[in-house]
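INFO batch 0412 | record 1 of 1 | parsing
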Amino acid sequence: MNNSSSRRTLITSQRKNPPMCQHQPPCPTSDSADRDAARQMAHHPEQGWSLLCNGVLLFEDTGELLPNGQIIAPHRQSRTAA
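INFO prediction complete | emitting tokens
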């Protein structure tokens, strides 16, 4: 049957972009240098990750997974002895 109301499903390897931030002031975008300052939308410390408002997955080792699939290596600041 040819049904005009049938749905088409597109398969993509990339995650969809999250909806625009509704916070005031708005959270930094996922491609800005201060992207880690976005608000947490989901926090799972037992699993070691948080989902930020801008779609960034932030891991407890400070590594990140951006919405476009780009991986950001952990970038912890080194501690210096006083």
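INFO post-check: Strands lie at 40-44, 49-52, 57-59, 64-65, 71-72.
INFO record closed
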